[in-house]
Structures are given as C-alpha cells and as structure tokens.
Amino acid sequence: MRQLVVLAVLVALAAASPRERRSELLQEYEKCRGGAGVCVPYYLCQNDTVVTDGAGIIDIRLGPVQECPNFIHTCCKNPVITATPKPPQIYEPVCGIRNTQGIDVRITGFKSNETQVGEFPWMAAVLKKEVVSGEEINLYVCGGSLIHPSIVMTAAHCVYKHAGSPSPYRVRLGEWDTQNEYEPYKHQERNVVQVITHPKFNPSNLHNDYALLKLEYPVELSLNVNPICLDNSPSIKDPKHDCVVTGWGKDRFGKAGVFQNVLKKIDLPFYYFDACQNALRTTRLGPFFKLDPSFLCAGGQEGKDSCSGDGGSPLVCLDSSKSQYVQIGMVAWGIGCGTGGIPGVYADVLYGYDWILNEAPKLLSDVDRPVTDYWKYA
C-alpha cells in the first residue's frame, strides 16, 4: 500500500508543468532577507540571476586543460615585475692572462695541441685583403700579438713589402675557429693603416725581424681580446719557465702541410743561445753558421714545432710568480719542422724591446695613458 502511495506522488509530480516543478525546487532554498530572490550557491548565480542553463557550471568534454590541482583555483598570470638591470661591468685589462678553461664553454674531445675558446686572447691573425672574381676576401698571412688596443706586433718578414705604403692588411682578434662563428664572443677586425719595420731588418737572413701594425681604431678589450705582457728582464728567458707558441699555420712543411681551422698550441722548451747555434751547425747551415743575437731558440722535440704560416706568432712564457704570460719571441724560421734535436728560431722580443718601446708611442696620435700600461705586469 505504501509503495502505491509513493508511486502516485511521483506520477503526480511528473504530470505537473515545468513551471510548477521549478517553483517547488526553488522552495528548497531560503528566501533572501530583503525578499527579492533566493539564497543559492555562488556558482548558481550569475549577473544576479539564478543560472538555469548550466552555463559556467557543466563540465564541457572538449575544452581547456585544468591547470590547477584544486578545482576552486584558477590560473592567473604572474604579476609583472620589472627587474633593475645590472650595470655592465667595466673590463679592466691585465696583460698576459691565459684562459686555460676557455670562456663560457669548455670544448672536450680535442687533441692536446688544440686550444680552448679564448684561451690566448692576445693572439692575432694578420690577413691580406685581395679581390677575387670581384669579391674582396681575406687571405691568411701570419700570426701576431696584441700589445696595445691599437697596435699588433708581428714579424717583419710577413709585412715588410708594404711598410710605408697604403696597407692591404687587416687584423682579426678574438678568433678561434676560422671557419665557423659559434664562439660565445665574436671576433673583432680592424684595418691596418700603418706598417713599420725595424730599420735593420734584413729580408735575406731575417735579422731584426720586428714589425708593428697600427690599427684603424682601437679594439675593445674583453675576455677574448687582451694584450700580452712585454718585459726586458733577462730572467724571463729561463728554461724552467713553461713556454708555448700558438698559430693557425701548417702542421708540416711541403704540399702535405695543412693550415689549421682551430687555433693550435705547442708547449716548447727554451734553448740556450750557444746550444741552439751548435744544433743549427749540424744542419745544412754548416759548421761556420753564426746565430744573430736578434734570435732565440725553442723546441727541438720530435714532431713539435711551429711551421709554415706561423710566422709572427707569439712565443710566450709563464711567469709563475705573477700567473701572467710574457712574450719572449715571434716565429721566424727553422730548418725543417719538428725535427728532433733541431730547435726553431724566433725573433727575440727582448732584444728588440727598446725599438718597440720607442716606436709604439709614435703610432698613437692621442695617447691617454702610457703604452706600457697595457703590456706591463700587474
């Protein structure tokens, strides 16, 4: 009997009109105190009207992904916060600083004679501008070293033919891989506007093989472009010092030699003058050969030497007391390349130091500080 009564009530409700059913459902909510409307959950009220079509409430099956773990939270953009940019740091140059671990990135998997990015920031590539098929290209001539933001030092035998005349040269600094441009710091190129060579330079025997190149305007000193130290103290020519020569020259003489894309380095021992002269007398130079005092020697180890195209490249040695490298030589000439017991011959920078010191300031029209400030020890 009771089941029949419940069934009768349900049938009656089903027979009622939609308006009557909505009226009965609204009676489940309390009336507002002001009498105008009913109290419903906040999500059922939009624009002061009870939601009757489910808008904003139903879970649409195709829609944005819920971005918050709690359904009562909504995703909102972060407030805009303007950070105060750090002022750019002023680079204070200190000569002869070698970046043994590279700059910002360390390359692994290389051979022992391949350098890291920016490892030798004083290294310069001396290029010659030539026009081929109507297009200007840069031909690699020699290596060099930065001794001042406006001056590069190289071997006279590389550039003497254009000394005192309009220069066809330009210099690239901060270079590492000559065939690619993925280094973290870009290289800098400057045209050479003046070439001076030592007045006693002899192109037949390369005595006094010194040259200075004035750049069109100064390079910007940075981690990958920085001067090498110079000094005239004989103590820096010590076989106990660690010395290294760098360059992009050929790995050997002759047609089999190949120019290098990535800057190479070779650790070389320093040779005493008399020992070098005696070693060279065992070659085709003969027993009467006299080594000019404007030269010094390094190397003599089998398979380790500077070769063709390395002319003008710096030979530098570490002054361990100051953790700075100082340049003692420039690649000049040799008998063969990498022959055991036969050292390579370099222009002795200490021997030519007074000429460098005297001529460098003459290349600068507006000297704001002594040129030696850039190559002296810290």
UniProtKB/TrEMBL annotation:
An annotated GO cellular component: extracellular region
Signal peptide region: 1-16
An annotated Gene Ontology molecular function: serine-type endopeptidase activity
Protein keywords: Disulfide bond, Secreted, Signal
Subcellular location, record wording: Secreted
Domain Peptidase S1: 107-361
Pfam families from the UniProt entry: CLIP_1, Trypsin
Gene Ontology terms: biological process: proteolysis
SMART domains referenced in this protein's UniProt entry, alphabetically: Tryp_SPc
UniProt keyword annotation of Metal-binding present: no
Family, as annotated: Belongs to the peptidase S1 family. CLIP subfamily.
Protein name stated in the entry: Prophenoloxidase-activating factor
